[in-house]
Amino acid sequence: MQKVVPPRLLVPYLSGRRTIISGYVYRVQDCDRLTTPAALVEALDLSFDGSELTPDVPELYIMRWDARDIDTYVVPYGPHMGGDWSDAPPFTGNGFTASREQVVPQFHTMPMPVPAGAEIVHLTAAGERPFAGYDGLTWRPAR
Amino acid sequence: MSDIEPVGLGFVARYRDRDYAAAVGPGGDDVVLFSETPQEGFTDAGGYWRLRVSRAALDRLTLLRTVGAFGGEPCLVLDEDDGGDGGEGGLHIAYTGHNGLKAEALGYWLVDHGAYEVVVPREEVHAIRVERVPVPLTVDRPDGHEGP
Questions:
Q1: Are residues B48 and B71 in the same domain?
Q2: Which residue from B50, B78, B114 is facing A20, i.e. has the nearest CB?
Q3: Who contacts A119 (Cβ-Cβ below 8 Å, separation ≥6)?
Q4: Which of A141, B46, B104, B114 could bridge A24 with an S-S bond, Cβ 3.0-4.6 Å?
Q5: Are residue B86 and residue B109 in the same domain, yes or no?
Q6: CA dist A105 to A26, A30, A75, Å?
Q7: Are B64 and B12 in contact, with CB atoms under 8 Å apart?
Q8: Which domain does B71 fall in, by range?
C-alpha cells in the first residue's frame, strides 16, 4: 500500500511524533504508471482545498508498507454506490479517485500504527530513491 | 467526561511472561517487540532493544485503542497533547465517521487526505473507553490455510 506524505507531516513522521497512517490509501500496483510528482498529484486528487500539493510540486515523499490480514481497508463508497461515505470534493464515492487521466482504485483506513518495514521514498521527476525505513519505532535513513 | 486514562494507538505483545510494546511486520507473520532494557535475545537498536518474532511465538497480541465521542460523532484518541509552551493541552483525536463535511463542521482539521484530526479539551470528549482488541496469532491467508 502507499500514501503520499503531506509535506507538513514529513518531520513529525521522521521524528517519531506521528506514528499512524490514516485516510485515503492506494495499492502500489495501481500506481505503478504514476512515476512523477505531477502524475501522482493529479491521479490521487492531492490538490484538494487545503492541500499544500500542486501539480507543479518538484518532489514528493511516499510511504509504502505491506498490507496484512489485520488491516482494515475499506472502499469509501458514497450513497449512490450503496455506502455512507461523503467528503469534500474531489471525493467521488465511486471507489476511484476523481482523476480524468487515470483510473485509480481508492481505499480508506482509520488510524493504524505504521507497520515495521514501512519505507519512505523520495520522488522527483528524475525518479525515486529510498529515503527512510521504519523498524516499528524509529525511522532511519535508507541504506 | 471520564476518569479513564486514555492510551495511544498501538500493539502490546505478551512474550515469555512479559508485555512489550510491539509493531506488526516487517513480514506478514512477524512482530517486532521493543524494550527499554536489555532482554535475552533482543538486539541493541540505540536507546532501546528489539526482537523480531513470529506471531505464533507470542502468548498474546493485543491492539490497544481508546475510542470516544466528540460532538456526537465517533472518534479515536491518538494521544494526549500537553499544549506545548503554556498551552492548555487536551486530547488529540481523529474522526472515525464517514462524513468529512460533518468532521469539518465539528472543527476537525484535514491533516492528511481523508484524515480529520483535532486537539480538544479533554472534557469535550465523551464516552471514553479503552478497547483491547485481540489479534489472532495465526495469520489468515488468502488461500484459506491457517499459518504459519
A1: no
A2: B78
A3: A63, A64, A65, A130, A131, A132, A133, A134, A142
A4: B114
A5: yes
A6: 7, 7, 8
A7: yes
A8: 66-132
Smallest Cβ–Cβ distance between A66 and the set B9, B28, B135 belongs to: B28
Question: Which of the residue ranges B3-17, B83-97, B107-121 would you say has the lowest mean pLDDT?
Answer: B83-97
User: In chain B, how many domains are there?
Assistant: 2
**One domain for residues B74 and B128:** yes
Answer whether B135 touches A (CB < 8 Å): yes
Q: Which of A133-142, B5-14, B52-61, B68-77 has the lowest mean pLDDT?
A: B5-14
From chain A, the residues in CB contact with B98 under 8 A are 76, 83-86
Answer whether residue B19 is part of any domain.
yes
B2 in a structural domain: no
Task: Tell me whether residues A22 and B96 touch, CB distance under 8 A.
Answer: no
> In one letter, which amino acid is B46?
G
Write the residue in B99, B104, B135 that is nearest to A70 by C-beta: B135
Strands (E), A2-138: 2-5, 20-25, 59-64, 73-74, 107-113, 119-124, 127-134
pLDDT of residue B148: 41
Residue B34 counted as domain residue:
yes
Q: Does B117 reside within a domain?
A: yes
Domain end: B64, B80, B107, which one? B64
Query: pLDDT of B118-146, one tens digit each?
Result: 999 999 999 999 999 999 998 766 554 44
Complex ipTM: 0.96
Share of chain B above pLDDT 90, in %: 80
Give the closest-approach CA distance of B135 to chain A in angstroms. Answer: 7
- Mean pLDDT of the region A118-136: 97
State mean pLDDT over A32-41. 96
Chain A nearest-CA distance from B9, in A, is 7
